Amino acid sequence: MPRNKISDNIEGIVKYILTKNYSYYVIQQELARMNLNVSKSTISRIANKVGKQRQLCLLNSEKPKFHRRRHIATPSIVRRITSYINQENPPTVSLMAARCHISVGTTFRTIRDIIDARCRKKTPVHRLYPAIVEKRRSRAWRMYRRLSNEKYKNYLTTDEAWFYLDASRGIRDIYYVRSNQLPAEIKKIEKNDLHPVAVMVWAGASSHGKTQVYFIEHGTTITSKYYIEHIIEPLIEYDISRLFPGDMQKKMVLHQDSAPGHVAKYTISYMKEHNINVIIPLEWLPKSPDAAPMDYSIWGIMKEREHFYPSIAAVAAATSTTTTSTTSSATSTTITATATTLEGGQRFVRNLQVEDRIWTLSHDDKYFIEDKIIAMLHSEPKTTIYFYTFITIQGHSVSLSGSHNIVVIAKRETKSQFIRASN
């Protein structure tokens, strides 16, 4: 559609005001006082002498020619950009464009089309110092022998973690302002980085279930005496006897980190007196996510879910619920699932046991977990479904159906077996 022609009267007035070196906004206000509604783009076209081309009807037949030199990726520029992207910490695209005196778009095209490179994010990993590498090299095989042949079921892995409440305290980091109004005040989120509100939590998990969640008193130093009186003694009285009943308690091994209160002589001697097998500091494997699921998995899930609780009391009330849905075991009322899988072209029905990665969850998490299972199956369709089996508590069932395998929750079975099912 052709643009409206700029009248000679408006063009003359705008050219006159332009001689006073006013900004486009001021010119627009001056024209508004004359009851002339002129946009900034029209003022810009008059200033760039596009009005003459419009009057000559050149814009109706062909586009105006702007003589702007397009940036060209010369061989020297390509070499410079190649040297930039080969660095360990390459600069940003904007900085590379500024250094080469070219546009950001030309820089993108040079990297993508000429150099044929793609930007990738670095994978965050834990830094392994030489001492840690040596410890892992000398201790890994012994730890593997201790966990192999399903002996990991005898282990109770424990850890403590800090929960900081200075991030948001339940306050959202956004607010809305209407486009035609000015905000009454600039809203802020105050953070206390020097003395943040925090609470330390201690917990443990095993293939037989989870321990209670123990909250450390504020300002307390976890010495060997405090560790025994407030954590180990309640652990022996309430948790170990429940998770490892009868003769299973003799095989139970407590897996903890090398904190000073954990490896003190008084703590080790107390464990020996009560016949509790403990991984000694010389056998503990540092920086090992596979051997310490509490440190590298469960704590991360709990902190993500409890990020928006406003107080320590709210965290304490929610932590017990969260651990129920994150520990990879069933509760005291153990139940299992029956999963229909396709393996080797044959259809099987497998009665799963507690050790087959069955997770409990609350009613509030039901639909979230179902969506997560479906997303996992779409991303990894070849994986058998019983690796992603989730169940609800109190006997409620979850059924997933579709183009993938079907999961049905059933009562606990005494044996784990494969049963050939009819197609």
TrEMBL record:
InterPro entries documented for this protein: Hint_dom_sf (IPR036844), RNaseH_sf (IPR036397), Transposase-MT_Hybrid (IPR052709)
Protein name: Transposase
Coiled coil: none
Lineage: Eukaryota, Metazoa, Spiralia, Gnathifera, Rotifera
GO terms for MF: nucleic acid binding
Top-rank taxon, per record: Eukaryota
Annotated source species: Rotaria socialis
